[in-house]
Specification:
The protein has helices spanning 29-42, 57-70, and strands spanning 4-11, 20-23, 47-53, 75-91, 101-115, 126-127. It is an alpha+beta fold. Strands 1, 2, 3, 4, 5 and 6 form a 6-stranded mixed beta sheet that branches. Helix 1 (29-42) packs across helix 2.
Length: 150
């Protein structure tokens, strides 16, 4: 591949929904959380859709979990899909006699819908509101560690 350079990348994903937050690698988690909270509080739908694809899947899940800890009354619906990405690679030197390469690959996509309004609990990926005992963070007990004397 050292004889090629990436010329074009096409991602096949539709336009974002009105309440969707697409998490990118450069997206700060606090920005994602604050936008989602604004959609949940001020939006007409009172819901937020957080989506991430490829390497940003874990960041999207982290954002959703932080929001759920702040607002345990939220309903969650998670879907996992795949997105098609098509890359075109061109030879660095046209005189080398190499052809253009077209590489198609699939990236994992996660979409987490958080809603103040109850969602259909029969759908796969549904999680109801958190129970009160689930919202606390448990820390290990701090014990005194003494060094053994010789």
């Amino acid at each position: 591949m050292e004889s090629y350079m990436k010329a074009d990348t096409k991602r096949y994903s539709g336009p974002p929904e009105s309440h969707e937050i697409r998490v990118a690698s450069r997206t700060a988690i606090k920005d994602c959380v604050s936008r989602a909270l604004a959609y949940l509080e001020d939006g007409e739908d009172r819901k937020a859709l957080i989506s991430g694809q490829g390497p940003t899947v874990t960041k999207a899940v982290s954002c959703a979990e932080i929001i759920k800890r702040k607002h345990p009354e939220l309903h969650q619906l998670t879907t996992v899909e795949s997105a098609v990405v098509e890359e075109v690679w061109k030879p660095k030197e046209a005189s080398a006699g190499l052809d253009d390469l077209k590489v198609t690959r699939e990236l994992p996509v996660i979409k987490v819908l958080l809603s103040r309004v109850p969602l259909d609990s029969s759908l796969p990926g549904y999680q109801g509101p958190l129970q009160q005992q689930d919202t606390g963070i448990k820390h290990p007990k701090k014990g005194s560690k003494r060094k053994a004397k010789n």
